[in-house]
Amino acid sequence: MAQIENAFDDVGSGPPIIFLHGFPFNRSMWREQIAFLSANGFRCIAPDLRGLGKLVAQTSVCDDSTPEHRLKSVPPATMDDMARDVAALMDTLQSESAVICGLSMGCYVAFEFIHLFPSRVSALVLCGPRAQGPDEKEKLSREAQALRVLAEGMDFAVESISSTLLAQKTVNEKPAVVESVGEMVLQTDPRGAAAAQRGMAIRRDYSSDLPNIDVPTLIVAGREDGVRKPEDADFINRGIRNSQLEVIDDAGHLMNMEQPEIFNDVLLRFLGSLGD
Length: 276
Ligand code: MLT
Known about the structure:
Elements: E1 8-11, E2 16-20, H1 31-38, E3 43-47, H2 54-59, H3 67-72, H4 79-92, E4 98-103, H5 105-116, E5 121-127, H6 136-152, H7 155-164, H8 168-173, H9 175-187, H10 190-201, E6 217-222, H11 230-239, E7 243-248, H12 255-258, H13 260-273
Parallel strand pairs: 2-3, 2-4, 4-5, 5-6, 6-7
Antiparallel strand pairs: 1-3
Helix pairs in contact: 1-13, 4-5, 6-10, 7-9
The protein binds D-malate.
D-malate (MLT) is lined by residues 22-23, 104-105, 200, 227, 253.
């Protein structure tokens, strides 16, 4: 997929922290962190990752290909592509290095980024991460999902959110969060979603990268995450020498949106420790 100038936020001044969103979402999922950390002396940079976010949705309106062509013609947006986009954005913003904070797919991009540009990472924050690469079953499932979004659009994906991504307490007590998550999914361009699924299907296995990561690393897990298992976070915690793991109660896969106050405190404490 040709590189597209995706939108980004750049708010506040101070040490930079770059937020990489999950799938199939956009940079708005970091709204609460950007407000909080920019008020606490940090520069918060949050791009929409390649193919995702609102700008791309506008560009695809002109897509006049046949349905058959549309299903086949979407090449993968790889984690490598996305990591290089982040580096290009940092160049544009004259940010030599930063704390890189990813959630889920954003963690795949973060792993790729630190592999490609180790000197540009001062610390890592990995939320709902997984290091292992895809097996055959996962690859087939991602291709099936890609074909389905291209054929049907994003609507069907909204239904699985409450059951798999969010904690029970979020579903019961935080309708605004459920609504924001649904809106992000519906704003996603199906072609961008298919490209990202295909990119995730051919991502590397990051397990053997873990011992080479030597920056301070915070791993954050939601105790009720239905997408990641506790072992996924433990595996990364054991693999990265200088890492710490925080598990947030009453939170699922989108723990930063579900428990923003707790998440922000955890993040601020970690960032505060970096100068020590
Ligand atoms: C995400 O939230 O980014 C996705 O769960 C990532 C994935 O599909 O592996």
